[in-house]
Amino acid sequence: MFSKAIRRYSIALYQAALNEKKLEKLETDSNNIINLVNSSSDLHLFFLSPVIRYDKKIQIVEKIFTKKIEKLTLDFIKLLIANNRESLLTEILNGFL
Fold first, then answer.
1. In this structure, are residues 10 and 95 in contact, taking their beta carbons and an 8 Å threshold?
2. How far apart are CA 67 and CA 1, in angstroms?
3. pTM for this structure?
């Protein structure tokens, strides 16, 4: 069962994608990110780590994903990091799908 946070963020992402008319692109981004995180233990641990500072996580996420995913998707990941919810990334993206 989804937690309230996962559900809220999933719905917010869906609404943003719908408003921007980028639902299909964000679905593709979400699938690709889920597959990437699940296939890379380093990336999975990166999102779970409370030790890595906020600014460093933002910098790394920008380096990995800029020009590879929609700006809306990237901004959403950065929002999760800013709100200390990045550990829920794959669950939120699965909820979005």
1. yes
2. 33
3. 0.92
